[in-house]
Structure formats: structure tokens, C-alpha cells
Specification:
This protein is mainly alpha-helical. Helices cover 48% and strands 6% of the residues. The chain contains ten helices and two strands, in the order ααααααααββαα. The protein has helices at 2-25, 38-48, 68-78, 82-88, 105-113, 133-144, 156-165, 181-192, 213-217, 219-226, and strands spanning 195-200, 205-212. The chain has a two-stranded antiparallel sheet. Strand 1 and strand 2 (205-212) form a beta hairpin. Helix 3 (68-78) packs across helix 5 (105-113) and helix 6 (133-144) runs parallel beside helix 8. It is globular. The two termini are 28 Å apart.
């Protein structure tokens, strides 16, 4: 009888713990997002993981575009390096148009150091320029472990790989089009469910590490999702 009682207590504690986490993760709602759509599900998924936020007025703005600086922050969160980026804020930038006190300096610095983003030949980053769909695909595949050893020229190499993985299935893709927040969420959601890879130069292949980006960087979230 005592053993059954103890098991019941353990079950109730775990149930309460699960409800607290799942409940808090799904607490955010946006007045301009319908959760039953593919886009809406992706937005709430990334928001629950803390990757992307809405606005103070309760909207998400799925049709709004993003700057390169804003997307650098999203990329750093997807890679699980936000603590590093916070610590890098205020340090000298390697880009001549990004000052050390610019709000996005730390995020851009970490994203660049990791090879997720690159600047321009003239030494600028253009943090206020709109991020394009081709750039979004490139950065997010680099977070998975892909790099410029993909066959072909940029951006066809990254776009082709993304299409092959099915990442572009739910969006209307136009390489040079400014990416919207909703499109970034859908691409990000698909990327999170793809396997992290490692490039093996000796064989010129990208080898799967056997776990998704969601599992690799957000282990607690994926464990709860599985449960």
C-alpha cells in the first residue's frame, strides 16, 4: 500500500511539472495569428521555445519583414548561444557599420564568429537591410552544420539542399524577396526538425549526427513534446 501511495505522489508531481512547463510554453497568444494554420503552428512553436517574440500590443506581425540584425538574433537563439551573445555586447565589432553599443552587436558578432552570417567585401554587415529568403535559408542550414562545400554556387547550393530536405514545402519561395516573420517561423520550424550534420572533408559528405536540431539545442522541450 505504501509503495502504491508513493507511486501516486511521484505521478502527481510529474504531471504537475509537465502541466506547468507546457502551460507556460503555450501561454502566449497573438491577436493576428491563427494557431490552426501551418504558419500559426510554426509561430507558436518558435515562440514557445523563446526563439522569436511578438510585439507589446499583442500582435506577432507575420507579414512584417526582418532586418539582418534581427535575424542574427534569431539565428543565435536557434543555435542555443544567446548567453554568449549577451556577454559579447559592448565588445568591438569586426564590421565597420556595427558599433560596439549597437543593440544587435553581440548577436551579430556571435553569428559571424560561428560562420552563420557573413558581411560584405567592403567590410560592412548592413544590419538594417532586410533579410532575404535566400539568406534565411543559408543561415539556418549553416546552423544545422551545412557549409559552402554544398555543390553549386550560392544561393542555388543552399536552396537546392533546403528543397531536397522539404524545408521549403510550405512557403512560396523567392530567393531575393524580403523574408517575412511568418516565413522565417515556418522555415525555422522545419529546420528544427532536421538532423544536425557534420561535414567530413575526407569523404566530402555531410553526415547526420543522429538527432534533430530541436533535440540537440532544446532537449527539455523535445522531451516534453515526445511525452
Amino acid at each position: 500500500m505504501l509503495k502504491k501511495h508513493n507511486k501516486l505522489i511521484v505521478f502527481l508531481v510529474l504531471a504537475a511539472f509537465m502541466f506547468t512547463i507546457v502551460g507556460s510554453a503555450s501561454a502566449a497568444t497573438f491577436s493576428d495569428v491563427t494557431g490552426t494554420t501551418t504558419e500559426g503552428a510554426a509561430i507558436y512553436k518558435l515562440n514557445s521555445l523563446g526563439i522569436i517574440d511578438g510585439y507589446p500590443d499583442g500582435t506577432f506581425g507575420p507579414e512584417k519583414t526582418l532586418t539582418r540584425a534581427e535575424f542574427a538574433k534569431i539565428a543565435v537563439y536557434m543555435a542555443g548561444l544567446q548567453a554568449v551573445a549577451n556577454g559579447m555586447q559592448g565588445t568591438p565589432s569586426s564590421f565597420k557599420d556595427v558599433s560596439s553599443d549597437f543593440w544587435g552587436n553581440g548577436w551579430i558578432k556571435v553569428a559571424a564568429d560561428q560562420g552563420f552570417v557573413k558581411g560584405y567585401p567592403d567590410g560592412t554587415f548592413k544590419p538594417q537591410a532586410q533579410i532575404t529568403q535566400a539568406e534565411v535559408i543559408t543561415v539556418q542550414l549553416r546552423i544545422l552544420g551545412y557549409n559552402d562545400n554544398l555543390p553549386g554556387n550560392w544561393p542555388a547550393d543552399y536552396i537546392g539542399k533546403a528543397a531536397n530536405l522539404g524545408i521549403l514545402d510550405d512557403i512560396t519561395f523567392v530567393a531575393n524577396k524580403a523574408a517575412t516573420r511568418g516565413e522565417v517561423a515556418m522555415i525555422g520550424s522545419a529546420v528544427l526538425d532536421e538532423d544536425v550534420v557534420e561535414y567530413k572533408a575526407s569523404d566530402n559528405i555531410f553526415d547526420s549526427k543522429g538527432e534533430t536540431l530541436l533535440k540537440d539545442k532544446f532537449d527539455d522541450a523535445s522531451t516534453i513534446e515526445d511525452a
